[in-house]
Specification:
This protein is an all-alpha fold. It has a domain at 27-73: 30s Ribosomal Protein S18 (Irregular). Helix content is 29%, strand content 0%. It has three helices and no strands. It has helices spanning 35-38, 51-54, 58-73. The protein is extended and about 50 Å long.
Length: 83
């Protein structure tokens, strides 16, 4: 029988508290042209961060995903990391 490791309070990384939407729950502020703003929401490997880590509202997360993919298609953002 496999035993699960207990979550220690010192190394447990749960959801950050008191995160508010950086866009103010207004998806109109998100644009594929603003690459510096979009880079905050992708990892160094090019993956889109989940809203639990960034605090983005669900409406803005859907728009953010669409704009990141649009910026990748326009070659403003990389699909993957450069090796």
């Amino acid at each position: 029988m496999a035993f699960r490791k207990k979550k220690n309070s010192s190394n447990y990384k749960g959801k950050p508290k008191n995160l508010s939407c950086p866009f103010g729950k207004d998806p109109g502020k998100i644009s594929y042209k603003d690459v510096y703003q979009l880079k905050k929401f992708i990892t160094t490997r090019g993956r889109i961060l989940e809203p639990e880590k960034t605090g983005v509202s669900p409406i803005c997360q859907r728009k953010l995903k669409k704009e990141i993919k649009r910026a990748r298609y326009m070659a403003l953002l990389p699909f993957t990391e450069y090796v």
